Each structure stands twice: as structure tokens, then as C-alpha cells.
Amino acid sequence: MPAQPSRSPRGARNVHDLSGRAPTAQRMIFGETLRQRRLAQGLTAEDVVRQIGHSASKISRMENGRHDFKEADLRRLLDVYGVHEEAERETLLDLARAANERGWWDAWSDVSTKTLQTLVSLEDMAQRIRSYEIAQLPGLVQTPEYTRALIRANSAGKGEQEIERIVELRAMRQQRLMRSTGKKLLCVLDEVTLVRPYGSREGMRRQLEHLISLADDPDIGFNLVELTRPNLPVQIGTTTIFDFADGQLPDIVYIERSGGGLYLQEEHEVDDHVKGFDRLLIASLGQRATVRRIQDHIKKLR
Q1: Average pLDDT of the chain, as a whole number
Q2: Is 81 helix (H, G, I), strand (E, B) or coil?
Q3: Of 79, 166, 224, 234, whose Cβ has the fewest other Cβ atoms within 10 Å?
Q4: Distance (Å, rounded) from C-alpha 40 to C-alpha 207?
Q5: From-to residues of CATH 1.10.260.40 in the chain
Q6: Which SS3 state, helix, strand or coil, does residue 271 take?
Q7: Which DSSP helix (H) or strand (E) runs through 120?
Q8: Are 281 and 234 in contact (CB under 8 A)?
């Protein structure tokens, strides 16, 4: 079996909405495997170009998961990387074929951007997801009723059929999370998202009751950023951190920005956001206090 990629330092390898297929976690993992094979031989991308003629940008796109893996290209790369044992070569080629396969989320490509498709693939592969959102409850803990109201309030141009497709995709993401053994979700909730209702009072009450029910799951954690507590370090903004098992990938951070999100993989950028999230976590209410506060808000909606 090929060695798992190490957490060696990496350059800026941000993931944007590019032409072609979205970079998925599966392709990122195999691309990281290729990168580690190259580094193990002491080769730069330019060294590889001189030997097989590909452009350095193509090597980079393959290693970043932004390019499909063609078998002919891979066989030439494996020759350069010193992978000559046939069984090992076939194992790597099988991994590449699996990485090239379209994910379950492709069925919703009509209502999802490439940024969202990457997000969903990372949710699927991550061992732990840490999330903080400032304007709404995290998608993985929303009720369909809340989701519909949220979309209608913020995307006036969407028709009911499109809205239902988005609700379906979000529900599928939630189902896969709940069915995953050992996957952890830690949500730092901003209290403003409990106070700002979407939909009817009854619908918002049901949403908060749903949070209470999720808090019983040992794999789901909630902390709360209090609305009136001063000097809270909330300037990290909407942030999601993905951790992966067995060093499959280094940690990846998704930050929400106006006009689209941005995925960060550069080590020092990831570290800055992880430290910011940890500061906010420490300054927030713990699980039990958070549940009590949610219950207080439920009472106000009765």
C-alpha cells in the first residue's frame, strides 16, 4: 500500500471556483499522495517537467486535485517517482480511478457552485468538522423549514423548485453526517442566530428544539458566543475547519466571504484560523450552559 502523505509544509494552495470540475477531497488526497511521491525523490515540479514534458501548472493542478488523473499521465509520473513494482502501481492507479469518480453530490450540481461541491466533499471525508457562523445557524444543523425561510429571505430570485433542491442537498449532507461512525461536529453558535428568526415563530421554535435534540448526540458539540458578553474574538468570521484521519490531508479551512468562499491550505494561514477558533471556543459557553440558553430562547417563542 502507498504510504500516507505527511503533513509537510506546503505553499499557498487555495481552492477557488475554477473552470472544470470542482476539486474534491478525494482528488486532493490522491494529489497529495503524488506530491509526497515527488518530494520523496527530491524533485521539484520543474524537474518533473524536464523529464516528461508536462507543464509545471499541470503538475500543480494534479497535486491540488484540480485536474482529472489520466492513466497515461500517471504511469509516466510513477516511472519518474520510482514506483516500478506492479502491484503498487496498480494500487495507486485504482486510487486515481476512485478519485476521478463523480461524488454523490454531483446529482445536485444544478443548484450548487463548485465551492459548495468542494465543501460537501470535505464534509464527507473529514474526521472532525469545526464550525462558526455569524449570520445563520450552520447548514448541518438546520431544519428544512428553517432552510427554506433562510433561502427565501436571502435569495429572492430562486423559485420554489430550486429551493426544494437545495433543501434536499442539505438534508442529504445531514443524513450522511449522522450515519458516519466517529465523525465529530463542533459548532460554535453565535447567540444572534438564536435571536434572529427565519420563518414563523413556531418554525424557529422547532429549529431550536432540533438543536436541543442534536445536543444529545455524543459526536455533536455546541458552544455559544453570548450576545451581550464584551470583547469576544468574533472577527474570524464564518469559518469551518476540516481535520482528516491518518494524515490523509493537512487541515483545511473554509472562510465565507462576500461573493463566495475561500479554502485555505497554507500552513500558517490554517494555523492562524485554528488559533482564532480556539480563542473563540474558550470564550464561549460550554455545552450544558449552551443547552440551557437555547431552552431560554425556546420559552420566549412559546
Answers
A1: 90
A2: coil
A3: 79
A4: 50
A5: 25-100
A6: helix
A7: helix 114-125
A8: no
Contact 76, 97 (CB under 8 A): no
- Beta strand pairing call for 128-133 and 184-190: parallel
Query: Helix-strand-coil percent breakdown of the chain, rounded to 5?
Result: 55, 10, 35
Output b/e per residue, 119-143; b: 16+ Cβ within 10 A: bbbbbbbbebbbbbbeebbbbbbbb
Residues 9-50 pLDDT 10s: 443 344 444 445 678 898 988 998 999 999 999 999 999 988
pLDDT tens for each residue of 62-87: 888 888 899 999 999 999 999 999 99
What is the CATH number that goes with domain 25-100?
A: 1.10.260.40
Q: Which residues is 242 bridged to in the sheet?
A: 129, 252
Residue with cell 437545495: 166
Q: How far apart are CA 269 and CA 264, in angstroms?
A: 7
In the chain, residues under CATH classification 3.30.870 are: 106-300
C-alpha cell read off for 28 = 486532493
Pair 64, 28: CB distance under 8 Å: yes
Cell of 154: 436571502
Residues 6+ apart with CB under 8 A from 143: 203, 206, 207, 210
